[in-house]
Design brief:
Distance between the termini: 51 Å
Largest sheet: 4 strands, parallel
Strand order of the largest sheet: 2-1-3-4
């Protein structure tokens, strides 16, 4: 599937899924409200279906969105049932979190857990059936030429043309019919025009990796005159990490290489989850805040909160908050303890730091000292999940430029390093490798897994440092 057609097909699949999920919720309500009550007269009767409209408003529109984030609509012909079930399971967790939030904080009652169980089975089954039918249709199109495929011409150098064709997926090949090849390096543009006329071509795809731009420009102008779409392969620059996208600046088309998660609805949702999650955690942890503030006040002299300049996204400094766990002169005393540093690289960490107070050790063991950073999350300076922010003076000591890529995303309360047993990692390069692994593989699902692993890590005392 190509370009706009691929986008339209995706939206059609999501619209069908929306309708299927709405119908399945109504069927689930019917089963619970009538069938179950008839079979088990002692079952509690349900209120009218109108009381479940808010459940419909969560499940029907948001399930397709989360499915797209999980990759449910991609590479259909190459997917296994196991992968589809895994993607459905991940989506189910996110929908469950949303329903739970609405019930706990907004006090919107679900009334029946059985209805949600029925919806899970009926809705999941309907989505899998729809996917199976689409797979069957695609495979039939691939195996049989129906004559309605888009007629395209591929232009470029011979080796580049073959490489592009070899890397087209089966689904993409099912949508197009390659009616000719044009060698831009040796054949005149007049031949390209003849091929356009002879084969009724609607699109020319340029594989331009090893071709001079001047020749491509001449061929594109010929397509422009003929009213034929021209697509240019943008792999003429080779990058190891950065992914190319297109944008517009000042009316000019820009080829953009980015090595961090691009702007997307997933990132917008991450920001919403950060703010809402931070507020929820603050409310639930309020007793710990009181214990920490009272304990610090009565066991040591000095301020309750510790504020330090940390490096945020792209190295921009911000004031990070913690409950104070050390003596007031801790920063001044650090220089005298440099010889005891147990971390390689610019980071300073020592076991059994003498500057930490007895009550501070307890706060650190359960990571209670980190709770004030929720204020940084609310302010948008940090995220719930992301590389841990380092002091500005430590960032200034980083010698390898590649290690600064950890600054390309918002710092977080927890991260892969945090849940991997951070006290056992003394190599700064290993720490950075975990941060870059997180950045390169980021998804909302990964954030959720890290958050889920953080709780047992804290309870086991891995939060101590």
């Amino acid at each position: 599937m190509l370009g706009r057609r691929q986008e339209i097909n995706l939206q059609l699949h999501q619209l069908v899924d929306f309708i299927l999920l709405a119908v399945c919720l109504w069927l689930s309500y019917t089963l619970r409200a009538h069938v179950v009550v008839a079979l088990f007269p002692k079952s509690e009767e349900l209120p009218p279906f109108s009381d479940f409209i808010w459940v419909l408003a969560v499940i029907a529109p948001f399930t397709p969105i989360f499915l797209e984030m999980q990759g449910f609509y991609s590479n259909l012909t190459g997917k296994t049932l196991r992968l589809s079930l895994w993607q459905l399971g991940g989506t189910l967790i996110w929908i469950g979190v949303m329903l739970g939030f609405c019930e706990v904080f907004l006090h919107w009652r679900v009334y029946s857990r059985a209805l949600l169980v029925f919806q899970g089975f009926l809705g999941g089954g309907a989505l899998l059936l729809r996917e199976a039918l689409v797979k069957r249709h695609l495979r039939h199109r691939i195996a049989n030429d129906h004559g309605d495929r888009e007629r395209v011409l591929v232009a470029g150098g011979p080796a580049d043309i073959e490489h592009l064709l070899a890397n087209m997926s089966a689904e993409q090949r099912s949508e197009v019919e390659v009616v000719g090849k044009f060698d831009v390096t040796s054949e005149p543009t007049t031949l390209l025009v003849e091929l356009l006329h002879k084969n009724a071509v609607s699109r020319v795809i340029f594989a331009a990796k090893h071709v001079h731009f001047g020749k491509i420009e001449e061929a594109v102008q010929a397509c422009e005159t003929e009213g034929v779409e021209a697509w240019i392969s943008a792999d003429f620059f080779q990058t190891a990490i950065a992914r190319p996208t297109f944008d517009v600046l000042g009316g000019k088309l820009m080829l953009v290489f980015h090595s961090t998660p691009g702007v997307s609805w997933a990132l917008v949702l991450k920001d919403v989850v950060d703010r809402v999650g931070a507020l929820a955690i603050m409310l639930f942890s309020l007793p710990l805040w009181i214990i920490a503030m009272v304990g610090i006040k009565f066991t040591s002299s000095g301020p309750i909160f510790f504020k330090q300049q940390r490096s945020g996204r792209y190295g921009k400094a911000f004031s990070m908050y913690k409950f104070r766990t050390m003596s007031v002169d801790a920063e001044a005393a650090r220089e005298g303890l440099e010889s005891l540093n147990q971390m390689d690289g610019p980071v300073f960490k020592i076991k059994n730091d003498p500057r930490i107070s007895p009550f501070g050790k307890w706060l650190r063991r359960l990571s209670v000292d980190e709770l004030p950073q929720l204020l940084n999350v609310l302010k948008g300076e940090m995220s719930l999940v992301g590389p841990r922010p380092l002091p500005v003076y430590e960032i200034e000591k980083i010698e390898k430029h590649a290690q600064r890529r950890r600054l390309s995303v918002k710092p977080g309360l927890t991260c892969l390093w945090q849940v991997s047993g951070r006290n056992k990692i003394t190599d700064f390069e290993e720490w950075v490798a975990l941060d870059l692994k997180y950045i390169d593989n980021w998804s909302l699902w990964l954030d959720l897994k890290i958050l889920a692993q953080t709780v047992p890590a804290v309870l086991r005392g891995q939060g101590a440092h």
